[in-house]
Amino acid sequence: MGRPSKPNTRYFQRTLTDPERIILLSAGKGNICRGFETVLDLYHYAHNQGFRPDMDMSILNIVADKQQPQTEDSMVG
Fold first, then answer.
1. Number of structural domains the chain divides into
2. In a domain, 29, yes or no
3. pLDDT tens, position by position, 2-50
4. 42-75 burial by CB neighbour count: b if 16+ within 10 A, else e?
5. Does any domain span residue 8?
6. Looking at residue 14, what is its pLDDT?
7. Does 13 map to a domain?
8. Which residues contact 35 (CB under 8 A, 6 or more apart)?
């Protein structure tokens, strides 16, 4: 994985696997940097809703239908 990071790390470099690259490209509409920022925004939202890294991701209730309004209760079960 490389050197361990520190809380004051400003830059980091890692080799992306093909699935990671595809995820970031999809999230950023073809722009890996924008995708990385989108993934950070998603985690920020989930964290504010009560999700923590030690929790199972299956508790996240993600609604794909844009017609259905999301409530705070629907993000973290």
1. 1
2. yes
3. 677 788 988 888 899 999 999 999 999 999 999 999 999 999 999 999 9
4. eeeebeeeebeeeeeeeeeeeeeeeeeeeeeeeb
5. no
6. 87
7. no
8. 23, 24, 25, 26, 27, 28, 29
